[in-house]
Amino acid sequence: MDYVIGVDIGTQSTKALLVDQHGAIVAQHASSYQPDTPKPLWAEQWPAVWLKAVVECIAACVRKAKEAGVAAKSIKAVCVSSLYGGSGIPVDSDMRPLYPCLIWMDRRATDQVEWVRKNIDLERLYALTGNGVDSYYGYTKMLWLRDHEPEIWAHTRYFLPPNAYVIYMLSGEVAVDHSSAGNIGGIYDIAKRDWSDEALDMLAIPATMMPERLVESSDVVGGLLSQWTEQLGLEAGTAIVAGGVDAAVATFAAGVTRAGQHVAMIGTSMCWGYINQTVDARHGLISMPHVFNGHCDIYVFGGAITAGASVTWYREQFCHAETEAARAMPNGDPHRLLEESASQIPAGSDGVMFLPYLMGERSPVWDAKASGAFVGLSLYHTRAHLYRAVLEGVSFALKHNIEAGRKGAQSLDDKLIVVGGAAHSDLWMQIIADITGYPVYTIEQDVEAAMGAALLAGVGVGLVSREEAQNGWVTLIERAEPNAQRMALYEQRFGVYTDLYPALKPVMHRLQTS
């Protein structure tokens, strides 16, 4: 039997799993960390944190597999997917990191966004790249580095996405997969599947800073360097496969490979996306080549910056009693207690609504100065009301993106697949079904992007045919059916949700500048 390893570098943890050529999990491991947030709306990470976590996770999987009788020579490939790395990691000519990676969550490039809007032909940029203008995108973060860190800019040889940097460290080869390149935004030609010299010239970003080698997500970039064999327990030359952006890789893990299928990945952030062959940036969503059949298929997605992060924030700031109580319980999870209380609250949280804009907001709002809000509070409301309102608020943000996505989708299937940490919550899955109107399905195996990376590894070394890969390795299970009565209530409340941001926007912006 042959085996592969899938790795997913996330915002708050890295996960790896070792599977056989049929997708059966033999071993898995996770390593946690936190991004650095040195200033409000800043979020960055030194790549050494990611590399250390990847090495720990791979080594642990190999060690556990060896105990189960798996020989190193039968592990044929490692594939690395990663969070969207925003600017990427600026490295010098010796491939040494010069500055932290400004990750997707970082919103510091507001002045650069305004510069682009005033000085660049936006319609041409939209047409070339299929993407818009916002501080979410990597190219605006690159412009921030150019403007604020000229010494770093002067010595930058390449900007490398997180997975590309880790792959370079493992294999000595420099390559960027098309999904990661496309997700940078304004410098990638979505039609030509290549860097856009025209866009780079417009933005005054040297084309030489973009790695020349662009690869498919299932391509073998190189072989494992011998210096890693002892630490990882793998043989030198083990194939290292390109991988891609985690949202697309998780979507692939769920078996999404054809137009119309759509998936919500709800972890720290929320990404909802579907497969299409065309894109229109004016609909306010993000696009990049898909990690499977990326030469023709485009992964179009949008999402909230703080989804699970909103839930974590609320728990940490306001739910100390539940946290303490959970420590005495077998599973130790305060969310179980919070969910029990929130499930007793009626749909609509008795009039409380939450805007989950705790780090500005991405699509379709695209406002770095947007801020979070509870609206409709009274003395009657409890922590349980507010907890349910947080779950509902993120679910409304999901529906907001789905409604934007309908404008450009060829079709959308009549079921919604949800992956990520939110899938552990029965209450949240029901809320999502009731708000979106879709039956909700989740992955039975609970492995998401790491499994997608493993499947790409299998395709890359020929252990899995492209026909087999189309259906994935996972099993979907139905979790929630929409309830007609709650759907009607939520439809009315969704109108309130979409009215709140325009109404509050002037106040949000005044608070940001006062």
From TrEMBL:
Residue intervals of the Carbohydrate kinase FGGY N-terminal domain: 3-252
Pfam families: FGGY_C, FGGY_N
InterPro entries: ATPase_NBD (IPR043129), Carb_kinase_FGGY (IPR000577), Carb_kinase_FGGY_CS (IPR018483), FGGY_C (IPR018485), FGGY_Carb_Kinase (IPR050406), FGGY_N (IPR018484)
Presence of keyword Kinase: yes
Alphabetic keyword roster: Kinase, Transferase
EC number: 2.7.1.17
UniProt superkingdom: Bacteria
Residue ranges occupied by any Carbohydrate kinase FGGY C-terminal domain in the UniProt entry: 264-459
Coiled-coil residue windows: none
GO MF term set: D-xylulokinase activity
Keyword Transcription recorded: no
Family (UniProt): Belongs to the FGGY kinase family.
Alphabetized PANTHER family for the sequence: SUGAR KINASE (PTHR43095), XYLULOSE KINASE (PTHR43095:SF5)
Name the record gives this protein: Xylulose kinase
Natural source organism: Paraburkholderia aspalathi
